[in-house]
Design goal:
eight-stranded mixed β-sheet
Length: about 260
């Protein structure tokens, strides 16, 4: 388990990152149908441009296969270069439309057009000052998820339920990126204003009931709660809630 004091400090840093990012990637703008073949994102967690793409994916409720490409990484960077011609991130691969794309603004526009059937919402439109705030947001998280750390590769990709604006989920994604562990990111953003707030005390008092038939409802039926992050490891059969527990598990199971 991580040191409790250090973990608390990191949580506050992650809260600052979400605040500086305008809490984008929390609320679902439009639930999109999952494509036949999963989207693939070559990604660096601490990169502010990659964050913009993950925010849009959360807003559309779209799942994505993450291929972590931290600085100094040796697992997926060469693969990304072979696909796109250079080591630049984010890089989106959509096999449903034979699309390979760089540039965060172009990817965000593509996702909303192709899967949301709409233009980019104002909150997600590229603005001149966002690059500065994005860099400050990454700094607030101490640039975790930027550089590779020695790790052991799993035989099968992990499964993470998360949404981009969740400060606790970010801590787990940072570690997965540093260890270069591939994973399916199941975006589980908030579908209604009544879901605003932490899992133990949402804005609306009383028993929590997700929107019937929604993505959160499916998760609720399986786990009797909706809380992120939630990690499943098909290699060990483990399923874990709580960021501190997940980080401890990743360190024990996959760090060298």
């Amino acid at each position: 388990m991580p040191n409790p004091l250090v973990h608390t400090v990191n949580v506050f840093g992650s809260l600052a990152t979400s605040s500086l990012s305008g809490w984008r990637g929390c609320m679902v703008v439009k639930p999109a149908a999952q494509p036949e073949q999963p989207l693939i994102l070559y990604d660096m967690e601490a990169c502010p441009f990659c964050r913009k793409v993950r925010e849009a994916l959360s807003a559309l409720h779209l799942d994505v296969d993450i291929r972590p490409c931290p600085k100094g990484g040796r697992v997926f960077r060469a693969e990304a270069e072979a696909l796109g011609g250079k080591q630049q991130f984010p890089l989106l691969v959509d096999r449903n439309t034979d699309t390979v794309m760089y540039e965060s603004a172009a990817i965000v526009a593509y996702l909303f057009r192709e899967y949301g059937q709409r233009s980019v919402p104002r909150l997600y439109q590229d603005k001149p000052w966002q690059s500065v705030l994005g860099s400050l947001a990454s700094a607030a998280s101490a640039l975790r998820g930027l550089r590779a750390d020695a790790g052991r590769q799993p035989e099968q990709p992990l499964q993470l339920w998360s949404f981009e604006g969740s400060p606790f989920s970010r801590l787990v994604r940072e570690k997965l990126c540093e260890l270069e562990i591939p994973y399916r990111l199941h975006n589980l953003g908030k579908e209604h204003w009544t879901e605003i707030g932490p899992a133990f005390q949402r804005l609306k008092p009383g028993r929590y009931a997700p929107i019937a038939g929604g993505k959160r409802d499916v998760f609720f039926q399986q786990h009797n709660r909706v809380q992120v992050p939630y990690l499943e490891d098909p290699n060990t059969g483990k399923g874990l809630f709580e960021s501190a527990r997940i980080l401890g598990y990743l360190e024990t199971e996959y760090a060298r």
